[in-house]
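In this section we walk through a basic example: taking a raw amino acid sequence and producing a predicted 3D structure, encoded as discrete structure tokens. The instruction is simple. Fold the sequence below.
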Amino acid sequence: MNKIQDQRTERRLHYNWSIRFADGFDSVLSQGQMVDISSSGGCFTCPADKYCPSLKEQITTLFSVPRFGSDGSFDMANYNRTGKICRVEQITKLTNKIAIQFNKPLFFKPGEQGISESEEKIV
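The resulting token sequence is shown next.
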């Protein structure tokens, strides 16, 4: 059996949290649900409607990322990023999965905060 080699340069943080997005800061915000994130981009699901981003479209996102403390605690930190849509995948007739590459990366690596994979999937 052939193994697919993961070409990612950093581990992603998998979590379910709200994300809001629009064509820009002056546009109406739509809502989706974050699936995973790295410092350079993320993936989220959203309704497959007229507000769903298209491939290569630039959008503005507003989202929160858990920041884990050494004692096992965490806080949610808020961020906004613009970025380009690099993949749109139809999950169901009503839902799409969107991958975005940020124009400016986050200053930390969300999936590499010193927590185990099992702890990461709880959030």
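Looking at the output, two observations stand out. The two ends are 33 Å apart (CA to CA). Helices lie at 117-120. In the next section we compare this with other chains.
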